Amino acid sequence: MExxxxxxxxxxxxxxxxxxxxxxxxxxxxxxxxxxxxEYKKVHQQYAKLCEEDLEALKRGLFLTWYxxxxxxxxxxxxxxxxxxxERIIKTLDLKLNQDFSDKELNWMINYYSNWEGVFDxxxxxxxxxxxxxxxxxxxxxxxxKDKEMSNRGQMGIYWNTILSEKHNNQKS
Length: 173
Prior knowledge:
Helix content: 55-70%
Number of strands: 0
Strand content: under 5%
Number of helices: 9
Order of helices and strands: HHHHHHHHH
Shape: globular
């Protein structure tokens, strides 16, 4: 139930962000004034609280950590995240990787993130994650994505479905 609530909250926040008009500075100001940055920080903190027991929460929290680094806040509504929540997610991920407790989806997510060199450099002290990022296999993960499986998974689901539709469009060309 909690994951569904968080997904709904993310979709609500994302809908607000994409409906905003104006230039970049105006959008950033609006997102801040509407409390969207703060709300996203809270969503991320909830994923961090749940991630030790819930692999889906770990995936979503990791995605938001990566996405906040990779994409501008005026497009995503995600501003600065709580460093303690980020650390908890990365620490949990590193532990699960050390225990070889992961799944195919999490593995391809990490492989995908490894395409952006240095994105997780501030977490270099987590050796299992560092090793996984350095030794990714770069397979085309999009063959593993099923659009129905990405429904109701917050911005993570929206992002992966966008990537999937880009692949399908490229194949048609």
